[in-house]
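pinned: reference chain
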Amino acid sequence: MVLDDVARTLVSLLFPHLAGIRIDDVSATSNRIEFDASTCRPSADCTQCGCRSSTVHSRYQRRIADLAVAGREVVIRLMVRRFRCPDSQCERRIFSEQVSELVARYQRRSPLVTELLTRIGLALGGRPGARMTQQLSVEVSRSTLLRLVRAVPLHSTGTLVEIGVDDFAIRRGHNYGSVVIDMLTHRPVDLLPDRTSDTFAAWLANHPNIRIVCRDRGGPYADGARRGAPNAIQIADRWHLLHNLTAAVDKVVRAHRKCLREHDEHTAVGQPAPSVRTDGQASGRRAEATRKRHAEIHALIAKGVGPTAISKALHLDGKTVRRYALAATPELLLTTVVRRGSSLDEHVPYLAARWEEGCRNARILFREVRDRGYRGSERSVRRLIHTWREAMGPATVLTAPPPITPRQFTGWLMRPRHKLTTDEITDLQRILDRCATLRELERLVTGFADMLRHRHGHLLDAWIAEAAASDLAPLRSFAAGLVKDYDAVRNGLTLPQSSGAVEGTVTRIKSLKRSMFGRANFDLLRQRVLAR
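pinned: its structure tokens
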């Protein structure tokens, strides 16, 4: 199809990078558009000596892939000329003219396509990127994408003044690398193949203008910073300080877990049970089985059989046999049930009232409580109704709230009070009132957390002295660790710099590693992190 003036104008608008190229013809199929084009410059410069020549030697055709249009692949068949070099001393007697705005040397795609493929490779990697190129009608292989990624030139880091450093797992538990961040721009500037002090010190020696190093409390980075940048200020990361304090607090709380489990009697919620026939003893299949087993065990004990022989004969655990042997009557084993709360508890009074009215159908009762806002399963309602059918007495089932775990209580201590709910503050205060050790722990933790959040580093000496004089061994150990890294810790509690940007970059590196399924080499990972 020969182009008219309107078509040429449309092509120039859609393909501005073809300016200076003469479009001779266009052919189109259902999935491809092909342009026949040629150069129209009167002369060209020699690629060897730079002399301009207008003497044409011959012509040849290049096929160039361009950006797709409307889902169709675009191919440009460009007729290129060969020229004779006018300089008799030039080693290259014949050279080809270059069309830099459309294609680079030895390339079969336009610069726009190369840039697009490079961005796809950096964002998605090999195989996912290759699948994306199929959708964009510029299909290439995963190897081509990876070659483009590796060929991306990395920008110069310039003069670094403030940096942050942290490690990341190349293979978790085996190999670790280090990432270095420019703390002023929050951009990664380098990835190191390991996390040794020698490697970090050598890297710092090549950047003599660094004045501040933000790091975690790991020994290799501290030693590497001392040797590679002896005049730099080292700042311990506040998040790691709080993390280490949390670990020490958790040890103390777990040693006093009994104080967390002693709930007051008023915290148990009584569930009303329907009034049914009672003869003063618990009944049901479980009660009958308990009485039968109690009789069998005591009969064997009366015959002189030992606990080990009884457990083998009745196929019971030794602790179960001892528990039955210590109980004088089976009724001592039939204790009041105390269970954890559930979403059905608030609807139990209504179910009990409906039971008294004569409604005993579990499905009907489930539909009624569901209309009242119950979001649990029908099975829970059926289980409760079945228990009521078997019960021979109005035993009240006590539902205690879930016990407070050491991890939960540690979280209450570490968080600011304004971030706790009213119930959490009430439970926290009740536990502190009955345990002097946890009160002391709370006082020290609150003091350090306030010092950290408000950056009152001048209070560090007094806090270390209080922690060292306390009876809490984990906190004494934590304070001793602060003394070993005193300068960096005090700087971290005083100066505004923090390693938050480093942690964010480590998270992004983890995402890139997962997207590459752990098959990428370190050099490719470094390119994808630094070339963005």
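why pinned: Residues 450 and 456 are 8 Å apart (CA to CA). The first helix runs from residue 5 to 14.
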